[in-house]
Design goal:
The complex is a heterodimer of chains A (about 325) and B (about 180). Chain A is α+β, with helices and mostly antiparallel strands and about 325 residues long. Chain A contains 11 helices and 12 strands. The longest helix of chain A has 15 residues. The chains are: A alpha+beta (about 325), B alpha+beta (about 180).
Chain lengths: ~325, ~180
């Protein structure tokens, strides 16, 4: 039995109430976490990974659950996203590939975007982590070094392993945030910060409210491919999304994004633009896939080796781009 | 020092019976069901959302009770494995698990029964792919899953073709053999 650390749960019914609770806690310099579906946070809490004394639940806030073709609320469940007639087909495929049916019933879009980075030196029981004298991401006050890349405790290299982000980035998604100081928006690829602990630009007391997609979203075709140990359930060891708009002589626009390889998902604009400017069918896809392989830098902190994951990025890119040359 | 959790009033309709309990503010639904509501059929497996043993229906939807905060389902209708049968009249999926060998050691069985009963409620005639998708979050280390898929298909036949289930009030299918309850 995993013993849950004690914390005070708040269950606001409106976004304003939630933000006000966050402000009150912040004013008193009390740490807290937001909880959406809980499928990431609660296992981490049960393993006593950076548990906070207060948790604010977003499950009762109905205004965060709106879903249509261009608007995805942060509290839309992954199951509802995958089953909705409004969802882009590639997003359906990515959402349907996340974990298991049971996890998707609880897990949310906002939670998936903000998924905590993972590392096999970190996602372990408290006793296991104590036996290796902790790690940088959860050092329990010891200032422990990173176990993946020793002799540097300034950067966490835990891996971002969420599936929705690469597809949403390729679709040109904008993420919308709210705090008591107001609201702000940005392209999704600017939301992430290259550090496994900071992870993204969210300030203390700020949360994701929704994601919007451009009006032309349904003109984009593509695919999402992922590598994992067990097809029914695991986090991606590597994931590649490819989305394009087709012209008469080939693709006129192409976007490639990856996940499961670094501390943030990667949007590979340069490589994709090179491919478009020199488009020559399957030869270009081979060159593109090799360029994507070279651009990613996985480290030894998931179950498959970095070299295998890099090799598979090339394979996954080719598979994801197969629709570009199908007639 | 983390603060201790307080007591809060919590109510739910558990297997058709209204229950009002005092629970810890941060209580997990699995703990409330097992330790306070007496639903010992809801099994604690991995406690991390991996195995599906703790599955229950919350307002008809399958959920992992080990990853559900009880406060978030306050006032909900919760069905555990004990709520599937109508007295001694087993739900078709329960009868077919017994008939087809879907249950061996039995520890994972409550989770499978809850999840597959929800599948059959939603789709009485699922394909093999749909059955496998529905149970992808449930682990079984005994059956190899084939008997479980067979059980769901057999239960689906009963539901869609109107086949008669053997009278489950007979001692053979009595869930408490040797105990008359009288």
């Amino acid at each position: 039995m995993m013993r849950m650390p004690p914390f005070k749960l708040h269950t606001p019914k409106t976004l304003n109430d939630a933000l006000n609770i966050a402000r009150e806690l912040s004013n008193e310099e009390i740490e807290f976490d937001w909880i959406a579906g809980g499928t990431d946070l609660l296992p981490n809490y049960k393993w006593h990974l950076n548990a906070k004394p207060h948790v604010i639940s977003l499950s009762g806030i109905s205004e965060l659950s709106k879903l249509n073709s261009n608007h995805i609320g942060a509290m839309v469940s992954l199951h509802d996203l995958a089953k909705s007639k409004y969802t882009h087909p590639v997003l359906v495929k990515a959402a349907d590939s996340i974990a298991s049916t049971l996890i998707r019933r609880s897990g949310t879009v906002g939670g998936n975007i903000c998924l905590d980075t993972r590392c096999y030196w970190f996602n372990q029981t408290e006793q296991w982590r104590e036996s290796i004298d902790w790690c940088h991401k959860c050092d329990c006050g010891t200032e422990a070094d990173c176990r993946v890349i020793p002799n540097q405790n300034t950067l966490c290299v835990a891996t971002y392993q969420a599936d929705l982000a690469p597809v949403l980035m390729c679709l040109g998604a904008t993420i919308h945030l709210a705090s008591v100081n107001g609201i702000r928006s940005m392209p999704l690829h600017n939301f992430f910060e290259l550090d496994g602990m900071t992870r993204n630009v969210l300030q203390h007391g700020e949360l994701v409210t929704h994601i919007t997609l451009p009006e032309d979203v349904n003109e984009w075709k593509g695919d999402y491919q992922k590598l994992r140990q067990r097809e029914s359930w695991d986090f991606p060891e590597a994931g590649v999304a490819a989305l394009w708009r087709m012209g008469t002589k080939g693709p006129t626009q192409l976007r490639i994004a990856t996940t499961g390889l670094e501390s943030i998902p990667g949007l590979h604009l340069e490589e994709a633009n090179n491919a478009i400017s020199k488009w020559n069918g399957s030869n270009t896809i081979d060159t593109l896939a090799d360029a994507i392989r070279k651009s990613v830098k996985p480290v030894q902190n998931t179950w498959y080796s970095p070299s295998y994951r890099k090799k598979m990025v090339k394979v996954l890119t080719k598979r994801a781009c197969a629709g570009l040359i199908e007639r | 020092m983390l603060p201790s959790a307080g007591d809060v009033s919590w109510s739910a309709e558990i297997n058709g019976v209204n229950k009002r309990l005092n629970i810890e503010n941060n209580a997990i639904l699995l703990d409330v069901l097992r330790d306070q509501a007496g639903s010992l059929g809801t099994k604690r497996g991995c406690d991390m959302g991996t195995c599906g043993c703790c599955s229950v229906l919350v307002n008809g939807e399958p959920r992992l009770s080990c990853l559900t905060l009880a406060a978030e389902v306050d006032g909900a209708a919760i069905t555990t494995v004990e709520g599937l049968a109508d007295g001694h009249h087993l739900h078709p999926i329960q009868a077919m698990f017994a008939e087809c060998g879907g249950s061996q050691c039995g520890f994972c069985t409550p989770g499978f029964l809850v999840v597959t009963s929800a599948l059959l409620d939603e789709n009485p005639n699922p394909s093999d792919k749909e059955i496998k998708c529905a149970i992808e979050g449930n682990l079984c280390r005994c059956t190899g899953y084939q008997q479980i898929v067979d059980s769901v298909r057999a239960a689906s036949d009963i539901l869609t073709k109107g086949l008669q289930l053997e009278d489950s009030t007979s001692p053979k299918s009595d869930p408490h053999p040797g105990f008359s309850g009288g």
